[in-house]
Design goal:
Distance between the termini: 24 Å
Largest sheet: 8 strands, mixed
Shape: globular
Number of helices: 3
Bound molecules: zinc ion
Strand content: 35-45%
Order of helices and strands: EHEEEHEHEEE
């Protein structure tokens, strides 16, 4: 059993070609609101957060052709790119995942949108889901 605390589904990351176009569904049709839009240069993405209850939809638009989101869309088209679980201690979570033999993409936590500290677990270790561990203060 993992001893680190996973508190909730933090967000679902959706790769889109255009945040402006994609957000219409959530705002105009579903009545949600874009809480924040932020560029994360380290990840070559622009991110829009749309809170839904305790979780969020995270729309991801690439800012560079060689970014992970651009490559994802090129290979698979728009769609769910990752899911993120909120953890209380990311170092501990990464350590446990590593000990369990999971393949981590990040060796150390990186800076995510909204001031989060994040790390990705490779889909080959997680039934095909790119899993983000996400610690927020
Ligand atoms: Zn994310």
């Amino acid at each position: 059993m993992a001893s680190f605390d996973v508190s909730r589904l933090d967000h679902v990351g959706i790769a889109v070609k255009s945040i402006e176009e994609a957000s219409r569904l959530y705002v105009d049709v579903l009545g949600l609101a874009v809480h924040d839009v932020e560029v994360v240069p380290e990840q070559k993405v622009k991110v829009a957060f749309i809170p839904v209850g305790d979780s969020e939809v995270e729309l991801l638009e690439s800012t560079a052709p060689d970014g992970a989101v651009a490559k994802f869309i090129e290979a698979k088209g728009e769609g769910i790119q990752h899911i993120a679980l909120r953890v209380t201690d990311i170092e501990e979570a990464m350590k446990k995942c590593k000990e369990a033999g999971l393949r981590l993409i990040d060796e150390t936590p990186r800076k995510g949108a909204g001031g989060a500290r994040i790390a990705f677990v490779h889909p080959k270790s997680t039934n095909g889901v790119l899993l983000e561990l996400c610690e927020r203060r």
